[in-house]
Write a structure and sequence with these properties.
By secondary structure, the chain is mainly β. Helices cover about 5% and strands about 35% of the residues. It contains 6 helices and 48 strands. Strands 2-33-34-35-36 form a 5-stranded mixed beta sheet. A 5-stranded mixed beta sheet has the order 19-20-22-23-27, with no helix packed on it. A hairpin with a 2-residue loop joins β37 and β38.
Amino acid sequence: MESSIRTFSLLVGIVWSVVPGIDAQVNVTQEHNNLSRDGLYLDAAFTPAAAAGLTRDLNFNGTISGNVYAQPLYIEGGPSGPMIIAVTESNNVYALNATTGTVIWQRNLGPPVTSGLPCGNINPLGITGTPVVDLASRSLFLDALIDGATKKHFIYSLNVDTGATKPGWPVDVNATATYNGISFTSLVQNERGGLALVNGRVYVSYSGHNGDCGVYRGWVVGVDINNPSNVQAWATTAIGGGIWGHGGVASDGTNMFVTTGNTFNTGGNWMGGEAIIRLQAGPLFTGQPTDYWAPTNWFSLDNSDTDLGGVSATVIDVPGATPSQLVLALGKDRNAYLINRSNLGGITAPVAQANMVSGATNRGTSAVTYRTSQGTYFAFHDEGNAISAYKITAANPPTIVFAWSIGQSGRGSPWVTTTGGTNNVIVWVAGVAGDQRLHGYNGDTGAVVYAGGGANELMTGTRQWNTGMVARGRIYFAADNKVYAFRLPSGTPTPTPTATATATATPRATATATTTATATATATATATSTPTATPTATATVPPSPTPTATPTPVPTPAAPQALKATNVTASSFTANWSSVSGATGYRLDVSTSSTFATYVPGYQNLDVGNMTSRNVTGLTRNTTYHYRLRAYNGNGTSPNSNVIRVKTRPH
């Protein structure tokens, strides 16, 4: 991490190098690498020839304590050098040296739950979902279920370099998460999916426990990472509707997407289950058909416990297709569904639908999506011991066409490597709860690239639905009490470029046209590396957190001007306001009281993002309401605007 990195990193914004270990993927900050949950890793070292020689690094220690369902992360730029972050069901959090696997720091956040749950299949139950890291603030966010007189989910922010808890955290989800008068109850909720960090808010999704017991719901809780007292939430109206998939919350960078499972006692009225849900910043759900999709047979799926939400949502772009911006759901009904994510459409037919040829159930996992010279694909592992890929045609409308399917034992979530965005694509999966080996397949044909290795490559204690990740010519996979590292024959695990390590360059514009924006962003993260980093192994309790540098303040925005309501009906109206220079968002209050002594449920300090109008729904007819706004940015929040009075129509 010497000064040559700083010199070299100036070139990264212009070119992609082809020297293994220099252009390799860095800073894996979240589940499946990107907000889209595409599972795509750009690493020039992963040619098919090199991948065929993958071996386990027997010099990598990787010893941890506890069962693991979460993907590990890879973080550079700290004082101890490149790190692997791993979490366990014993509520242990580890930072391991990325080269040696020795402990840099570790934390225990409290006792996990070992008894007293109404049902379930994870014991002990502590940290299940994959954390997320904010590199700018060097913060690690995760959810932990902690035992006590009241069993509670807590959302933590830890200093990723020391493990120290950040000021103002953790967030007690029981005490802070409510939606339309419904309070969050940790006892009946489990947190399985990966966390997402979108525009300064961390989003955490929840399901129930195995067995569908208790009054659980599908929940998404959002916390402002700069003001953890600002907590918002959305939940399914009906009981049930859990968000079960390993990927958790997906995003296109603006909106969040989740898939929900079966609901109960709806009487045939759709109440949030068996659906793809699009959430705006907050999270905020409009309830409009543009923001949800459910199949026309959703009620039948409910009654047969055939969850649409068997696999977490995946955001897919298909150049040349109409529509081209899509979101994928894979249901327990053995169907794949593609939906127009710009307008989900409500309860209607999907843009495209196909029955999976393996005929097996899909549940609990994450899918992947990738693009080659032959087209755009998605791939997944089902419960019928097969990994399969399908192509999405660039048509109007797009269709789903079978590509390949290979017998593969286990129940893991796949991931993908590519050497340049669309070439040398390899689909990887671990045979978790199966043969417990890594396997790699050609993304276009399914031909075997890596067959699992020999005796040294066998893992133990792998858990269902888990996935691996790629960094610096290596694959890392976490299992019970162990993080495993696999390396290519020429792979180098730590950034060691020198001033003479130049190579043929390909313009960055070409790379970004064929891969996700996140892959581009992570390539520049080397610039934050500390030049004098020296990896050290220590198992001491982390020191108190040190203040994180903040950006130069900008002025607090002025109060917005609230404008006359429009589109007034018996149960809704549109609140309007003027934009304010320097504001990054607005917060809305709605009340039946002109003094705002009380608030309409869901409309107190509601973060409506950087919009200048908001549809307010669920109101009582022939009733007078009042609304006001505040503008905010990173430096603070404005005073209240003027108050607008509006009366709903009598009918």
